[in-house]
Structures are given as C-alpha cells and as structure tokens.
Amino acid sequence: MSRQREILIAPIITEKTSSLMSAHNSYTFEVSKNANKIEIKKAIEKIFDVTVLNVNTMRQRGKIKRMGRYSGKRADWKKAIVKLKVGDSIAEFEA
C-alpha cells in the first residue's frame, strides 16, 4: 500500500489539465522519477478505484534560476497523464 503512495506525489491542477479532464477524461499527476507506466497504472487503479485506459509520461527538466550573480537549478521531475474509462472519474479533482 505504501508503495502506491510513493509513486504518486501530487496532482497537477492547471487550466490546461482541467480542460483535459473535461474533454478527454484525463488526469495529470506528478509521479516518482523511477516509476514506469505499469506501476503508475496499478497505483491509480488501486488508490482511486478506477479503470485506466492509457498512461503517458514526460520527464521535465528543472529550470535554471538566478539570484543575482548566483545560479541554481530546480529539481527534475516526472509527469503522468492518465486517461480513464468513460464514466469513471476521480472525486478529489472535482472539488
């Protein structure tokens, strides 16, 4: 059980992801960098009790940020867009 919670880090809720939710029944999550599509699918099906049709993943590079003459880098992260079966939804996103 704790492994599924380690795979899913946080939901991503923006204007673009909300339009994906309404138009394509797709939800976006920040996931562990080491998780693969099969693990992400199993975790979402187990935690939210839905049927996942498709999982697309993207690795996002952290941005270079400057503070005066010093520069640093934000952490790299991974994003997953999950398409659910018609009729299924995740209640936490609807609120």
Write structural notes for this entry:
The protein has helices at 2-7, 15-24, 37-48, 91-94, and strands at residues 8-11, 26-31, 52-60, 64-67, 70-73, 77-84. The protein has one domain: 2-Layer Sandwich (Alpha-Beta Plaits). The chain is 34% helix and 37% strand. It has 95 residues and is an alpha+beta fold. The chain is globular and about 55 Å long. The protein has a four-stranded antiparallel β-sheet with strand order 1-2-6-3.
Give the SSE map.
Layout: H1 2-7, E1 8-11, H2 15-24, E2 26-31, H3 37-48, E3 52-60, E4 64-67, E5 70-73, E6 77-84, H4 91-94
Antiparallel strand pairs: 1-2, 2-6, 3-6, 4-5
Kindly report the CATH topology: Alpha-Beta Plaits
Shape field: globular
State the helical fraction. Answer: 25-40%
Overall number of structural domains: 1
The CATH class, by name, is Alpha Beta
Q: In angstroms, what is the radius of gyration?
A: 15 Å
Specify the CATH homologous superfamily.
RRM (RNA recognition motif) domain
Our count of helices gives 4
Which sheet architecture does the biggest sheet show? 4 strands, antiparallel
Q: What is the straight-line distance between the termini? A: 25 Å
Q: How many beta-strand segments?
A: 6
Unreliable spans:
none
Encode the helix/strand succession as letters: HEHEHEEEEH
Q: Any guess at the CATH architecture?
A: 2-Layer Sandwich
Strand residue percentage: 35-45%
Strand order of the largest sheet: 1-2-6-3
Mean pLDDT over the full residue set: 93
